Amino acid sequence: MNITQQSGDYLYQPGGTTYSCGARALPGYEIRHITLMRPLPLARGLEAIAAYLQAAQRPPQALCGLQLRCPSPYSFEGFAAFNDTYCALLQKHDMLHGSSPFTGQNPIARTNVFPLAEPLTEQTIHAFSYTAPLTEASGRPSFVASGAGELVQSALSQSAVVRRGETSNEAMMEKAACVMEIMQSRLDALEVSWDHVTTVNIYTVHNITPFLKSAILNRMGNAARLGVHWHLSRPPIDDIEFEMDLRGVATESYEELR
To answer: What is the pTM assigned to this prediction?
Structure first.
């Protein structure tokens, strides 16, 4: 069941204390996606986003999605430790809701990957999404879905990794199929479909061409004509090899925040 983040004008699919599985704008609002021309360190980036939202006359709770970049993949334990720091920073800026320390459901969708083409020394913000009033009437839903890797039922444990330690074409196809099932479940929960998707991102260092059509494009319906964005990146946890996220938005821009 989705939860309404009333102060942010969106609903979200619960995912836990770290991030939600996805967010969808409430009627009368849309989700806008901003890619940073220059990535910002996490803490400073959240300060810049808070200032951006204030200038746009939006509350801090309007933040509904973040795309992060990490300097290297984490262990499962290291990932949990980072998430504690991450949630504390969000709470500091009043971007969550609930008590402090935060123990409820995190409403913000998230992707966090390690980019091979962009050497980093610290955790950074690559892009963010927020809600704003619709500028014109539209019947299309507006949403973002969090990134997911090949973890059965999205469980954060080594035992849940599909074909852990294997990277053959066959193994990668199974991993991709698992992630596609997760993406489908997130679309279903948000009551949207592939017809509403505008961007699909794939994060892996392995060759996706042997199974791109059969395991991915053939399941994307009309969204397949828009193709996919393949980022030479690793998922945020050592044992995971394939990650994907997606969104359906009408407004995207590229900006430099300070």
So the answer is: 0.94
